[in-house]
Each structure stands twice: as C-alpha cells, then as structure tokens.
Amino acid sequence: MNGDTAKIVNNTAPAKLVDHRLGGGENWPGVVYEKRPAKDVNGNVVDGLYNAWIILDNPKQYNSYTTDMVKGVIHAFRDASVARDVVAVVFTGAGDQAFCTGGNTKEYAEYYAGNGQEYRQYMRLFNDMVSSILACDKPVICRVNGMRIGGGQEIGMAADFSVAQDLAKFGQAGPKHGSAAIGGATDFLPLMIGCEQAMVSGLLCEPFTAHQAYQLGIIMDVVPALKVDGKFIPNPTVITDKMFDDWGRVCYGKAKTGEELAKGKEVLKSGTIDLSLLDQRVEELCTKFLTTFPDCITKSLEELRKPKLEAWNRNKEDSRAWLALNMMTEARAGFRAFNEGTRESGREIDFVGLRQALAKGAPWTPELTESLMPASKAAAE
C-alpha cells in the first residue's frame, strides 16, 4: 500500500470496524484455518491481503470429517466469507493421500449406526457445511491433494473451482457402504458431467482418475505430482496417450490394467510425491482474483452458483430425513462392515445374502445385520 492509498483508507474507514465473524473457525479439532499472504503476478507478497486456507486435518483417517470437523468447516467458511482482507478461499486436506473420503466411518459405525434421530441432527450440520461453501462471498478453490471420495467428492463439488494432482481418484461409495450419494452428488453431478456419467458414478461407485475428471469437466485443471529421478512425470498407472481398446473406445485417462498396471505401480514406488506444481497452480488462480472488482466477483459467484444452489436447496431436507431413517437399516450394516472389516475379510457386507433374505421378506433385525458382516461371510465360506 503506497502512502496516498494509506491516507485515503485512514481518512475514510470507521474508527472501529464491526466484527461480522461467527468466530472459532481456527479452534476446531481437525480443521486448520490459515490466512496466507496473497501474491501479485510477479510472485511478490501483497501487503494486507490474504487467501484463507481451510484444511481438513485428519490424515490418519484420510481426512474424513468427524462431527466436530464439520462444525469447524462451517465456522471457517463463515469467517473467510466476511474477512475484508481475504481474496479467495482454498479448501484442501492435509498430506498427499486424500483431500477427503467423506464422513468418518468409525464415528458413523460406533455412534450413529442404529441411532437415526442423532444422525438426523448430524445431517443438519452436514447440510450447513455444504451451504456454507455455496454461500461464501469469496471464490472457493478445492485443492485436490489426493482422493476425493464419497462425501469428500460432494463438498469438493460445492466449491467453485477444483485443481487436482494427477494421482488423485474421484468417486462415490454410497451404495457399496449402505448410503446414497444425496449429500450433494445427486444434485451436482448431473449438472456438471451429465445424467449418464452421473449414473455411472452414483450407482456403480467406480472411481475415475484425475485425467478422466478433467475430461468430464468436474475439475478445471490437473497437474503432475510424481517425481522420478528429480523430474515430474504423469501418473504411471493411468493411460495418458490417446489409445483405443478392442471395441474402438478411447482409453485416454483410464486406469491401466493387468501387466501395464503392475509396471505403473513399480514406477510409482520408485518416485516421490511433490505437490509444488499443485500449489503453484492454486496460487496462480488466487492471483487472478486479486486483479478483479470484489463486489463484481461476489455477484458473479451468486449467479453462477444458482444451478447448484437450486438443486441443493430443493432436495437437502428430504435427503436428510431419508439418510436418518436409512441409518436404521442398510447404513447401519454398511458402516459397521466397513469399520469392523479387515483387508482379509473385506469391508463390505454379504450383498447376495442380503438380497436373498429380502426376497424372502425377511425384516431388518439385529440378527440379519450380524449375518451380513464380513466376519460372518468369511466364516460361512
């Protein structure tokens, strides 16, 4: 700030500014709120201006969010939204393995499973978290530092921009673990990637690569993160050349299979993960907002978010009610299976056994739930 500008600010600003924050965004366990200096186009720090970084900090559980973390994200986005000195918001996760893999399945299994009325209150918080992202007065950039799965995909899609490192995977997991992707995915996916691909993601739960995410339009950019012999290389487990399979379908962006996948994994093991290019791209994007009118940016955000907001607001309360009821049946079984299962037994229920039981009209009883657990399935085999 030069002397003339400082003089103008000092002569016109109120003696004491009103604090519009809810406060506490920096004090919740599992969420880090930081204000990092904004930079100009030459990479120089700009005095008095910042970008707010909201970081999910639960890397041991792939940055899955607990109830307290959801509260922290709400407070952090509200604080960043009203901060006069914040230009943009970067939403990311700690480490290089995951942005977020959704709700904390340990907490789900050990507290919310079979406790529908409590899960209903939890979903009020979750809905408020998504709404706080969609209502932020600043542009929100999702820095996809790793897996963005399940609820992590949903809160990531609520952001305005997404930039990913190319080892990241994207997708939904609901019908595999006892839920439905109605925390935003069923609202946002048809808008962002079309109805057919939304069906593939929401029903089949097959993850797609960062390169596929870029092609589909769910992220704005993808950058390398693997360094081998000191040089960045594309994800070696993904087909990054234009190739065709036996059916003549384009394979670009798809995960490799068989021997090629094994070779790619060996290359992956030989390298190190470096997110410096991801950070560089995110910083460049933040700098672009620095040279725009702030109120015009906020109004443009409000208008461009309307399709997401309209879909989200139309469905979020019905979704909340259904998810609470579902915690008494399929979610109760699915989250327990994930939490109690092992690599050897698997983390999914006996789906065939469930369908056979329901075909005979079996009610959801504790005995049915127990019979579907991975350990029971393994014992039966």
Which key terms come to mind for this protein?
381 residues, 2-enoyl-CoA Hydratase, Chain A, domain 1, 4-stranded mixed beta sheet, alpha/beta, 17 helices
Q: What does the model show?
A:
- This protein is α/β, with parallel strands linked by helices and 381 residues long.
- It has helices at 3-12, 67-82, 105-112, 116-134, 151-157, 174-177, 185-193, 195-204, 210-216, 258-270, 276-290, 294-304, 306-326, 330-340, 351-359, 366-372, 374-380; strands spanning 31-39, 45-56, 86-93, 98-100, 140-144, 147-149, 161-165, 169-171, 208-209, 221-223, 226-228, 231-233, 272-273.
- The protein contains 17 helices and 13 strands.
- Strands 1-2-3-5-7-10 form a 6-stranded mixed beta sheet, with helices on both faces.
- The longest helix is centred in the last third of the chain and has 21 residues, at 306-326.
- 40% of the residues are buried.
- Sheet having the most strands: 6 strands, mixed
Number of domains: 3
From the 3D coordinates, which CATH architecture of the largest domain would you assign? Answer: Alpha-Beta Complex
**Helix content bin:** 40-55%
Count every helix, treating DSSP H or I runs of 4 or more residues as helices: 17
Strand order of the largest sheet: 1-2-3-5-7-10
Order of helices and strands: HEEHEEHHEEHEEHHHEHEEEHEHHHHHHH
